[in-house]
Design a protein that fits this description.
Elements lengths: L1 H8 L4 H18 L1 E3 L2 E3 L19 H14 L4 E8 L5 E7 L12 E5 L8 H16 L4 H9 L1 E5 L4 H6 L39 H13 L3 E6 L4 E4 L19 H13 L23 E3 H4 L6 H8 L3 E6 L11 H17 L5 E7 L10 E4 L2 E6 L5 E4 L4 E8 L6 E8 L5 E2 L2 E3 L18 E2 L15 E2 L3 E2 L5 E2 L30 H14 L4 E8 L5 E7 L12 E6 L7 H16 L4 H9 L1 E5 L4 H6 L36 H12 L2 E8 L2 E6 L17 H12 L3 H5 L16 E3 H4 L6 H8 L3 E8 L9 H17 L4 E8 L10 E4 L2 E6 L5 E4 L4 E8 L6 E7 L4 E3 L2 E3 L14 H4 L2 H14 L3 H8 L11 H14 L4 E8 L5 E7 L12 E6 L7 H16 L4 H9 L1 E5 L4 H6 L36 H11 L5 E6 L2 E6 L11 H13 L33 E3 H5 L5 H7 L5 E7 L9 H18 L4 E7 ...
Parallel strand pairs: 5-6, 5-7, 7-10, 8-9, 11-17, 11-18, 19-20, 25-26, 25-27, 27-30, 28-29, 31-37, 31-38, 41-42, 41-43, 43-46, 44-45, 47-53
Antiparallel strand pairs: 1-2, 3-4, 4-6, 8-10, 11-14, 12-13, 12-15, 15-16, 21-22, 23-24, 24-26, 28-30, 31-34, 32-33, 32-35, 35-36, 39-40, 40-42, 44-46, 47-50, 48-49, 48-51, 51-52, 54-55
Keywords: Carboxypeptidase, Glycoprotein, Hydrolase, Membrane, Metal-binding, Metalloprotease, Protease, Transmembrane, Transmembrane helix, Zinc
GO biological process, one term: protein processing
Cofactor: Zn(2+)
Length: 1393
């Protein structure tokens, strides 16, 4: 405005001034056109150029004049309109800035800024006016701005609360003037419908909110910023939580990472905000990490606008606080504009990230509006706009994206790559369903605000009635509440909705049932998906229909529920009821509120028949018979599950195995098993230790009673408790429920196995006294049970649910344990860190714990209805050398290491490995290869893939066949001691060649995918893989196909079982080692291996050391964990049921554990069959490398046609070993000068030892948790350190620096030196004393000798004369010394003289 004002003030002609004023204030309003509800400003009148004035605030009149002027000056890119009026009649102006602003065109995402929502927070109002001017004046000159305006539909509302602004006062930093609220005293940012709270507002009190809500729903914005004042920070959803804790509660949305990215985009471009230290006078110590904060964590804001945008529009909005002072002096305006200019532009540019595209009708090519765009794993959908266009903001990554529309076949695109920068374009073409049945009704969009709570559910996701008293579950699904009288006139009451009921009641045999399921799966693809969990004994599919709004994937926060029926083939009512339920849910979705809510918030799995074979021989009219009850092998499936009190000796049936696998692979929360023969709900436990008929109470007895009553209360006849008076007149069940064992004892039942082995709570529901009633009675059963079936599904939404999250990076922690005080039944989180814990209403003390993390305890109150959201954020136990202060990991973290950490984490969590398996399918031709063909195959790999393979001979067998070792790595001929090294061994027993063929296929699989699949490429580049496909080639030549138990070929050519020939001590060895053994032992003794996996046959389990009997296992936790990893990634092994009649043993083998009693499919080797001299024992003891043995199947030498199945079962598990070898702890040992120390000993937990290799590197695998490490080297002081190992993270590199050893004889050097010095001093003093004494004596001797020499000539004659006498006497008389002890010596000396 400055230029304009100067021109205006210095105008020479008053006439020009009058003319200008006339044009501006009279002509323009008169010529303004009203289009719809917006007041469009139009004029052909010329106006003088206006430029921004940074020295003053604009009041309403001035701002209006300026905005109108700019719209007139730039009509090709600017359009001013009003979306409504304030309480006092001021217009809510919005400037639309885009190329061709008067028309809606496809391909341009809409974004908006809203300022001055609180009237006394004024910086936002000014900077948005400045932003309008900046965009308009630089369009066509600045390429960046030109591109932004051309490609984006930008809406800017400088003031949402113009009335409040007029009451505010410049310089009022704390808002004492009272301009925060609107003219009716309403806080506009507490007046939007809220997901967690009942917002009681009168529509006439908040016209500004009403106008903005209508605007949001009409425009379908993609991105938004709400500008405030009072501090300097960017806040993101959610703004409140169900608990409404005032501060400190992180209320996470499913797009949390995306919101953090958006907030960071603004904050990092703001010089004050990015510091995280606004230093506001009233809160000088308040800080925000990186300048951003979760809204609810900062403080709870119910009824906020940003959450409404996210939950009810297609729009992601953050709230941006711009200044500490709410209404600072105008002199601050230029500075604030400079601070925020780049942030405002950069934030708008984020509207172009993610994925975007169009959805069209395949029949005629027309655009399809209101199509749901679903991103798998993110439970927040949006819908297409009027041109069929959509814009889904996403962070870089790989996604599965679906387009779902009523009346059309849904379409899913898998593996959509989103990269940084511009959005990925993804278009959909949907085919109409034709004459297939459709669901739902279309309700015209008529947004209103009331205080009533009549939920409107339609097939159109954007046909929404806004209700300020509606409550919403954590994932945003509306749930009706009771409410008061409406505050405005309501439309005439509509007829009560009547759901569509099933019409075709009949008994469905297998083929009929199959067609029924396929029909509804194909007809309702947007909510129904049919799959099979396995086959019956007679190869009939065990079908499951899953019904949900996103049926093919598990959605975060959405519980998994299941119904199973027809477990006893002749109990058929449940089978038909579940088919009725499928029809009911599909046909009423979108039109019936209850059904729509259940389907949108629950993933419902329905298995109509667990025993289709038994059903086929059952007969209609059977009241209490047994024909068809058992499966085709004549086993009762409800006595076939592993039991806590009784050993089930019957072989596990294929139906049982399939269900067990299904339950292990899905995070089911609640279940019901539908039976017949009585009318009661039966809950755990089903048996007890004594096998008596008495109450067997489980820890969750109260929960089971609650959910059991939820069913029985909706079935009037059941609830009476007298079910079958004609058949069982004395039978009575209070409230229609009973404890299982209190009714009768059922060992091996399915409901107890659910409760004890998974997180799932299951009850057994007896649906009627007649097991196989006539078809004409089926409608009555539906009428009696329809409400009960639905009500029971509702029970899955009770208790508490949430996530256990790593506070460092926000990722979910898998296998974390949730315990409830005084209830001895912990549950665990799924792979994404989610949990659901059913509880009766009340207050509980919950604890979340995970290996490597500090536990967190919290109190939670479970409401009478609904579920309480409780998230746990755990901090890691720090890994630091003892006595050292913790370091900031961000200061030292290597970016490459951080990327690799993320790589391993992605493969370890969720569906990472499964997706890898699915994306790397290769053509394979399976057959058994004898030695010659095996050698040719290995040489062929080296010829075809010379850069990543190297073939070596380890030695030869007895019959001179080569023991081959194939290395696969990116540098196979170069030692890379810093990389982990894994050994894969097959064929130790020649009669079990499956392992050999699996390893050959695995080698080919890796080589073929190298350079093509980035994950496989990265694994090979980071790992040294050594494959020994056959270490007993002589025995393999003797073995024969299809011999499942034969021992021919088990031994080598000398008849020696090689797995009993590995001895490290000569004293243990009776004879010389076999040549095959010697070759492998030499390889093992090279050390350097981090992990070894041996493949064998004859059973279906994984074993860990030791094979030796009565041998303590120092590192058992780690060894067992490694075996568990393999078994867990095998589709059958982890179920703990070998399925082998005698676990694959020969008659001469010792007995093994009973069938089915192998928890998780993992066993200590000695418990299977103890023996000395095993390869894995040698590997652990002398190679310092953990080794597990995997038994791939019951048959030692199965037919070749089974190899493809065995490969499919083991491929994921083998890949998991390549991932697992990168975990544990690794590091470098060096001295103070940085010189690496080779051969240093690393002692793990005081027992297991590994040694550093070249470069001082070491790597050791450890079970998840806390571990102590000691480093020892000659001449250096011992070092100790505690490390934390995670089950899903790569080994963190540590550095161990040695000091010179200051200890001598185990004592401190200073003490030894001081002691030595004192000793030496004492010795010197003693020596001096002795010397002095000796010196005194010596002087007398010297004097005598002197006299003797002096007078020698004089008494030479005398001596001669007296020679006959004693010389000794002579000397003693003449020269006697006082020391008699020296007489002889003195005499001898005198004699010499």
């Amino acid at each position: 405005m400055a230029t304009y004002l100067r021109e205006h003030r210095h105008s020479a002609s008053k006439l020009c001034v009058s003319l200008f004023v006339f044009l501006l204030f009279v002509v323009v309003p008169i010529t303004a056109l009203s289009v719809g509800e917006a007041r469009l400003v139009r004029s052909n009148t010329a106006a003088k150029e206006e430029v921004e004035d940074y020295t003053k605030y604009y009041n309403y009149v001035e701002m209006t004049r300026l905005l109108k002027f700019m719209a007139l000056k730039y009509p090709h890119i600017a359009n001013l309109s009003s979306i409504g009026q304030s309480v006092q009649g001021r217009e809510l102006w919005v400037m639309r800035i885009t190329k061709d602003p008067n028309a809606d065109v496809p391909g341009k995402p809409k974004c908006k800024y809203v300022g001055n929502m609180h009237g006394d927070e004024t910086i936002s109002r000014q900077v948005l006016v400045y932003l309008v001017d900046y965009l308009l004046t630089r369009y066509g000159e600045d390429p960046r701005i030109t591109e932004l305006v051309t490609s984006t539909d930008i809406y800017i509302m400088p003031s949402m609360n113009p009335d409040g602004f007029e009451r505010s006062r410049e310089g009022d930093c704390s808002g004492d003037a009272g301009g925060r609220s609107n003219a009716r005293g309403m806080d506009l940012n507490r007046s939007f419908p809220d997901q967690f709270d009942n917002i009681n507002v009168q529509q006439e009190d908040i016209p500004e909110v009403t106008a903005v809500i209508k605007w949001i729903l009409e425009k379908r914005f993609v991105l938004s910023g709400n500008l405030h004042g009072g501090t300097v920070v960017a806040s993101y959803p959610f703004d409140d939580s169900a608990s409404h804790k005032m501060q400190g509660y992180y209320s996470r949305s499913v797009d949390d990472n995306l919101f953090k990215h958006l907030a960071l985009t603004y904050a990092k471009n703001h010089p004050v905000m990015r510091t995280g230290e606004p230093k506001c006078p009233d809160t000088p110590d308040e800080t925000f990490e990186d300048g951003i904060v979760n809204g609810a964590k900062w403080y709870d804001v119910p009824g906020g606008m940003q959450d409404y945008n996210y939950l009810n529009g297609n729009c992601l909005e953050i709230t941006i606080e711009l200044s500490c002072c709410k209404f600072p002096p105008a002199s601050e305006l230029k500075k604030e504009w400079d601070y925020n200019r780049e942030s405002l532009i950069a934030y708008l540019e984020q509207v172009h990230i993610g994925v975007r595209g169009y959805v069209k009708d395949a029949a005629n090519g027309t655009a399809l509006p209101d199509v749901r765009i679903v991103v798998a794993g993110i439970n927040h959908n949006l819908t297409t706009a009027q041109f069929g266009d959509y814009y889904r903001l996403l962070l870089p990554g790989t996604y599965n994206v679906s387009a779902i529309a009523t009346g059309y076949m849904s379409m899913t695109v898998v593996g959509v790559q989103v990269v940084e920068g511009k959005a990925t374009e993804l278009n959909f073409t949907l085919a109409p369903l034709g004459n297939e049945p459709t669901v739902g009704i279309t309700v015209p969009f008529t947004p209103t605000i009331t205080t009533t709570t009549v939920p409107t559910t339609t097939s159109d996701p954007d046909s929404t009635t806004i209700e300020t008293s509606s409550t919403t579950s954590e994932m945003g699904t509306s749930v009706a509440n009771e409410s008061s009288t409406p505050q405005e006139a309501q439309p005439p009451a509509q007829p009560e909705h009547q759901p569509i009921q099933p019409q075709d009641f009949r008994h469905h045999h297998y083929n009929d049932m199959e067609l029924f399921l396929r029909r509804y799966s194909n007809g309702f693809r947007s909510i129904a998906h049919l799959y099979s969990i396995g086959k019956s004994a007679e190869d009939r599919e065990l079908y499951v229909m899953v019904i949900s709004d996103n049926p093919t994937v598990h959605e975060p926060g959405e519980p998994e529920f299941k119904y199973i029926a027809n477990m006893h083939g002749n109990e058929v009512v449940g089978r038909e009821l579940l088919l009725n339920l499928i029809e009911y849910l599909c046909r009423n979705y979108g039109s019936d509120p209850e059904v729509t809510q259940l389907v949108n918030t629950t993933r419902i799995h329905i298995m109509p028949s667990m025993n289709p074979d038994g059903y086929e021989i059952a007969r209609e009219g059977d009241v209490r018979g047994y024909t068809g009850r058992n499966n085709s092998n004549n086993f009762d499936l409800n006595r076939n599950f592993p039991d806590q009190f009784t050993t089930i000796t019957e072989p596990r049936q294929p139906e049982t195995i399939a269900v067990m696998k299904w339950l292990k692979n899905n995070p089911f929360v609640l279940s019901a098993n539908l039976h017949g023969g009585s009318l009661v709900v039966n809950y755990p436990y089903d048996d007890d230790k004594q096998g008596r008929t008495e109450y067997s109470k489980c820890p969750d007895d109260k929960v089971f009673k609650l959910v059991a009553r939820a069913y029985s209360q909706e079935n009037a006849l059941m609830h009476k408790g007298h079910p079958c008076e004609d058949l069982y007149p004395s039978e009575f069940f209070e409230d229609g429920i009973t404890n299982g064992a209190n009714w009768y004892n059922v060992p091996g039942g399915m409901q107890d196995w659910n409760y004890l082995n998974t997180n799932c709570f299951e009850v057994t529901i007896e649906l009627g006294c007649v097991k196989y009633p006539k078809a004409q009675h089926l409608p009555l059963y539906w009428d009696q049970n329809r409400r009960a079936l639905l009500q029971y599904i509702h029970q899955v939404h009770r208790g508490v649910k949430g996530m256990v999250i790593d506070i460092k990076d926000g990722t979910g922690i898998p296998n974390a344990t949730i315990t409830v005080e005084e209830i001895d039944h912990p549950i665990t989180t799924n792979l994404d860190g989610e949990y659901w814990r059913l509880l009766v209403p009340g207050t509980y003390h919950l604890t979340a714990s995970a290996r490597g993390y500090n536990s967190v305890k919290i109190y939670a109150t479970v409401p009478e209805e609904g579920v309480e959201l409780v998230d746990f954020r755990l901090t890691r136990v720090r890994s630091e050398p003892k006595g050292q202060a913790p370091k900031d990991p961000r200061a030292t973290q290597d970016p490459a290491e951080e990327v690799f950490q993320s790589f391993i984490k992605d493969l370890s969590l969720g569906q990472g490995l499964e997706q890898l398996v699915q994306s790397t399918a290769t053509e394979s031709s399976f057959r058994y290869r004898r030695y010659k063909e095996l050698s040719e195959f290995l040489r062929g790999l080296t010829l075809n893939f010379p850069k990543i393979t190297s073939l070596h001979s380890l030695g030869q067998s007895v019959e001179y066949r080569t023991i081959w070792a194939l290395e696969i790595s990116n540098k196979p001929d170069e030692p890379e001691t810093a990389e982990p090294k894994i050994r894969l061994v097959g064929g130790i027993h020649g009669n079990a060649p499956v392992g050999t063929e699996l390893l050959l296929e695995f080698a080919a699989f890796l080589c073929i995918n190298y350079g093509k699949n980035p994950t496989i490429t990265r694994l090979i580049n980071e790992t040294r893989i050594v494959i020994l496909p056959s270490i007993n080639p002589d025995g393999r030549e003797l073995a024969r196909e299809k011999q499942c138990t034969s021992t021919v070929g088990m031994t080598n050519a000398h008849g020696k079982d090689l797995d009993t020939d590995f001895f490290g001590n000569a004293s243990q060895r009776v004879v010389m080692a076999q040549p095959e053994t010697r070759a492998v032992m030499d390889l093992i003794l090279e050390r350097g291996f981090t992990l070894s996996v041996a493949l064998d046959g004859g059973s279906l389990l994984a074993t860990y050391p030791y094979d030796k009997p009565v041998q303590p296992v120092e590192n058992e936790e780690t060894l067992k964990y490694l075996a568990n990893v393999y078994a867990r990634n095998h589709p059958k092994m982890h179920l703990g049921d070998t399925g082998c009649p005698s676990n694959g043993q020969t008659s001469s083998s010792p007995p093994l554990s009973p069938v089915g009693n192998i928890p998780d499919g993992v066993l200590r080797a000695a418990e299977r069959q103890s023996h000395m001299g095993s390869m894995k024992d040698f590997s652990v003891d002398f190679g310092h490398c953990p080794e597990i043995t995997v038994y791939t199947g019951c048959c030692l030498f199965p037919p070749a046609e089974q190899l493809a199945t065995l490969w499919a079962e083991n491929r994921k598990a083998l890949l998991s070993m390549l991932v697992e070898v990168h975990k544990g702890v690794r590091g470098v040992v060096k001295d103070k000068s940085g010189k690496p120390i080779v051969g240093a000993m690393i002692v793990l937990n005081g027992g297991v030892r590994v040694f550093t290799a070249e470069g001082g590197y070491f790597h050791a695998l450890l079970a998840p948790g806390n571990h102590n490490i000691e480093a020892v080297a000659d001449g250096y002081q011992q070092q100790r350190q505690e490390v934390v190992v995670s089950s899903y993270e790569a080994a963190t590199s540590i550095i161990i620096e040695f000091d010179m050893d200051n200890r001598i004889f185990g004592l401190p050097r200073e003490f030894v030196v001081a002691t030595a010095a004192a000793s030496m001093t004492a010795l010197v003093v003693t020596a001096c004393i002795i010397w002095c004494v000796c010196a005194a004596k010596s002087n007398q001797q010297k004097d005598g000798f002197h006299r003797l020499r002096q007078h020698r000539d004089d008494y030479e004659d005398e001596i001669r004369l007296t020679s006959m006498g004693s010389k000794k006497s002579l000397l003693s008389n003449e020269f006697q010394d006082e020391s008699e002890s020296d007489e002889d010596t003195l005499y001898a000396n005198a004699d010499k003289l």
